[in-house]
């Protein structure tokens, strides 16, 4: 352990004490009276400076008691100095000697304070045993050394009470500190406490000796007994100093869960000290008192051993109980953690990671629960799909698309009513379950709210998106009583809303839709059993150049003439063919027939007519589409410029494959590419610039109003001018009267297709009415 260098104030204190010691040694009353209060006051200064140093770190008041003791002792000694040395008044004729009782009272108060701080850390039975044994032994010794050898002679009751008071307080202080010191079997006593204990022991022992001298009227002031008092002040100051430089953690406010401080075997040095003292005391206390002390020590040891065993047993029981409680608590915490973890995992498994809505798994389970729940008499299923969402992903990337989905889902969550639950069932599809709704008007309110909140622009800087929903509704138990049928009906109604031509954004599943589904099923069966060569036929509609009214090509249009049902509209069977996958074989048949017909006419009449072939999105998404077209052209020995592939504007924007690669591949072959129905869909200049296309087919919806609507006229004019500026041809679809034709000629539209030149007709009629006519007119 490193040595601590003492500060100057400690050396000064020691020097002052030595001066007082020399004064009383040489029997100098004046210097003795002077140095005694100086030692006391300087000791109080040292204590105060040490306490001040620790004031912000602890709340132990022990050292304040010591400060009060030394400071009060200095005041009383100062009064003694004044009366005895300066006023030459007999001090014993004043109350000054009685004032020395107050420092003893302060020490007694300190004992009570310390006891209040530490009693919870001590075993009370052992402490009581120690107090009883040490107290009785001290009383025997005090009686043997003081009271048995003196007589109680006092001139007044006050002197008697004063003597008894300071002897009683000294007895309390001495007995308590011996108990605390000797009973601390576990706790190592700090050096500062040892010094303070030594000082208090010297003080109380000196006080008892003073009482003996006082009772025997042999006390003389400024003798070595007074140096014992100043030695006490100095020791208290030294203890306070060492406390300040070696602070001990204050544990008075902590709950002590281990063994008490007074558990364990007695300190060995105590036994080694006590035994010789008892031997030395035998001649002074007498054999009967000596025997009584031995008996008390024996009883104390036997009682203490029993108490120590009890402490250990109680400790082990409490420790076992504590371990059990700890283990039980740990198990409960683990169980609680597992429950929370399971709940979190279940929540994660039931929630969509992007939007935070319930996912498809939870949606399907919830549908089953509601169907089996007797308390839920009815509910409605709203199946929703975002319109043209794929275009956002393809144009701006999936990250932006995810933000759009997140924003829309938050609107659903914030605006849905209490009996509504929102789900994300996949991609851009959502569902809402409305439980125990009042009537259909209530559903209309919810649907209207969903459509309105979806129409507000979604801002994802630097973009602003306008999205819309298509909603299909099925009701339990009215429409169906099982999950699969409910989902199918809601999906059918949603699809009906998506393809609706009157901009109706939602449909309830009803008998009409059911009938439509039955019809669709019948068409599907007939389509699967159809013979393409016998039932299907290509009709051709002519395309004329506006500058000279010359036939330049024709569009191949598929017709189905069923042997029993008769003519079936392409609008009815094409979607079914796409859903069932028949479109692949049917599309191949169309391409083969159109190519062969174009080859036959062009070779027969030495012409370069171009046939327009409409291609399904599913055909385009086939990764081998371009290679198959290339192979057919090679196998049939057809000129690529005779073929024009028509792709609708929506397909060009929403296809799952890279349209740039498709268009580039077709252009490399030499095939012409037309964007069909241009002007009614996306009309985005960005994709026109990106794609390698040859012609824009202006939609019939625009041509119908070109003569009556100025705005429509301006749109058509803008399309033609834009196409010309980009090196693209334009062809107007659905031209039916001469006014439309004349306007388109003025606008310099390149080609015309419509009833004004001819309806779609079978190939033999087309050859007769258009090709032969063109040949004869040229001749």
TrEMBL record:
Coiled coil: none annotated. PROSITE patterns: EAL, GGDEF. The keyword Membrane applies. It comes from the Bacteria. Residues 377-511 form the GGDEF domain. The chain crosses the membrane at residues 7-24, 30-51, 63-83, 95-115, 127-148, 160-181, 193-213, 219-242, 271-299. Keywords: Membrane, Transmembrane, Transmembrane helix. Pfam families: EAL, GGDEF. Residues 520-774 form the EAL domain. This is Putative Signal transduction protein containing diguanylate cyclase/phosphodiesterase domain (GGDEF) and domain (EAL). It comes from Acetoanaerobium sticklandii (strain ATCC 12662 / DSM 519 / JCM 1433 / CCUG 9281 / NCIMB 10654 / HF) (Clostridium sticklandii).
